[in-house]
Amino acid sequence: MKKIIFYSCSLFALLFLGGCKKGNYPGAVVSPYVSILDVKDLYKGEDITLTQANMYGSEKITAMVVSDHSGGNMPAGLLVVQESRRLSQLRGIAVDLGGEAAKYVPGDSVTINVEGGVLKRVNGMLQITGVPATAVTKVSSGNAITVNRVPASLILADPNKYENTLVVIVKAGFNPLPAPSDVLAGDKLLNDGFGDIPLHTEAAAAFAKTQAPFLANYYGIVFNKILGDKQVIPELRMRTAKDVVILSSTINVSPIIITGFMPDVEGTDYPYEYVQLMATRDINFAETPFAVVVTNNANNSAPTGAPVNGWGTGGQRTYKFNLTTGFAAKGTFFYVGGSTKVINGVNSTSMATSNWIRSFDYSTRAGDDEMGNATTGLFANSGNASGVAVFQGTQVNLSTTPIDVIFVATGGSLYLAGNPERGYRIANTDWYDIKNPITLQDQPFYRNGSNTLNLSYPTGEQGIFNKLGGEYNVTLGRWMKARSQTFADLSKTSTLTEIEGEGATKLLE
Fold first, then answer.
1. Mean pLDDT of 218-228
2. pTM value?
């Protein structure tokens, strides 16, 4: 009897599925609206006329306008709209309406009957042509458009995904650095620390003669061009002068940057852990002292709770090394940490000939200025957060802001909102922002606002050096290629080239 029931159910399922056609939404009645994602998926390199048959029974799209022709920088005649109906995947499309496109402004909600239109590339830009102005109906105006912050690297990796959508490139500067007389007009490369993306400004745009800023947020629509052998090249076009939000007009070069660290050597951790740093200028530490502070937030670390004095909390939470003697040449690595000066714990390769600016047995003595108890481990290995910060000068307390900082993981009591706030202050780096780059609200602590990025722990391994490869430009005072974490699995016989060679941080002029 069970077999009969099974076969009957299977037959019913086959009959039911066999009688169904692919649709854009399940149900007895086909929706009149098709997603932009489904429409764009129809394009396979050749022009295609849009019909109810190939749009799964639908005929319209409903979306939000993002184009603005008032600034004179949009491709003529194109109405650009976006939506995320299908799988919450934001997609945009341009519709050729001729002069009628300028009647619509960002925040207008519209429906567009695209049946009979032709999906094609014109000058490399994917768009729908042949749609009359009467096919567009404005539903409402003044709607908010969600800010879509996208690193340049993602757009460059998948330009078709972001084509015809409104994005913001955050903390971007021009590569190369513009001269004081340079303006926005023309084609320039924007760099946000993740890649170089072309910014195009028409010579006749209302803001074309605006001076090119040093560091800014750039809002704009992504359009694609086809070059050479069908190579897709994205470019960003701002719409009006309001699409550039200047963040800074000054160049601030961090004299020291964090380039790596060894948090968990093979065998006992103490006193073998160390931090690798790089000088971005010649530094005589006797004349210009600095401090390096490591934080360990393991569950039993005291004092418990949010750090009452920030990086200066001491106890089992933070441990300080004062850098007051020695010399580091511009572009060279130097080290701070345990007294043994070896690469991977007991009986491993000596690093004694490397430039150790400060080293001592942290397992038998307190940190400098009594900041931090003697400890068997500078870094947490429990899954809770640990981190490293560099300070100019040796005074470190709740209000002291580091010049560079990096964190691993998120666990433990790290930040407490209130008056006053408690937490670990961050610096403006490739990973963190003292002000939210979108809202411009203050967020001076780790785990505060958008400061949630962190490195990860290697899983179940000892002897992993955390190499932070990136490219820091000392002329611009910023990361042209943001630091990325690479786990260098060291042995007892590993050499210095494994932590200072390929994949290590580079200094650019």
1. 92
2. 0.85
